[in-house]
């Protein structure tokens, strides 16, 4: 998993509450277990007309937001079903951080497991960042996980993340990566088991 330390990037404002996972990646596109290829379907029903043409009014279809790596959203982002395809689609599009006043619990947890940084800030601070991203779209926003702060011009907003999850993001450790940190102990245990219970390995 790619480490997340400091991200300075274009931020796209999405001033919508209760953005659910079916809006993020409609159920039509859940027929894969691959983490790649879903970015083109992100927010599909909001991004595209029925004939496949882009809707020019949707934020991610406009410059420079179509290159955004940060999404600024409103309350209860990621609600709905628990599909892990939602963070997969965001990641595949290029979004590595979502800033919002609150997240649905399962989406919040899935984000960390997929190398995304969900940042919770008070609603008034989120609104200030959203306004700045709207007024100055070319000016990037910085999300600094090491210092745990968001910086945008003269705005500096601190945030907190569970220390274990922060450690995993900073070091690019998903569940498999955490397990492989104990590879030596696992190999030693397996070797001892082969000696003491060889019939299990016939």
Secondary structure blueprint with pairings:
Blueprint: E1 6-9, E2 11-14, H1 21-24, H2 44-47, E3 70-73, H3 85-93, E4 97-100, H4 105-113, E5 117-120, H5 123-135, E6 141-144, E7 149-152, E8 155-158, H6 163-171, H7 175-180, H8 183-196
Parallel strand pairs: 2-3, 3-4, 4-5
Antiparallel strand pairs: 1-6, 6-7, 7-8
Could you state the order of secondary-structure elements as H and E? EEHHEHEHEHEEEHHH
CATH T-level fold name? Aconitase, domain 4
The CATH fourth-level homologous superfamily: Aconitase, domain 4
The biggest sheet, with number of strands, parallel, antiparallel or mixed sense and barrel status, is: 4 strands, antiparallel
- What is the CA-based Rg, rounded? 20 Å
Strand order of the largest sheet: 1-6-7-8
The helix/strand class is: alpha/beta
Supply the CATH architecture: Alpha-Beta Barrel
The strand count comes to: 8
Verbal overview:
With 202 residues, the chain is an alpha/beta fold. It has one domain: Aconitase, domain 4 (Alpha-Beta Barrel), CATH 3.20.19.10. Helices cover 34% and strands 16% of the residues. It has eight helices and eight strands; from the N terminus they run ββααβαβαβαβββααα. The protein has helices at 21-24, 44-47, 85-93, 105-113, 123-135, 163-171, 175-180, 183-196, and strands at residues 6-9, 11-14, 70-73, 97-100, 117-120, 141-144, 149-152, 155-158.
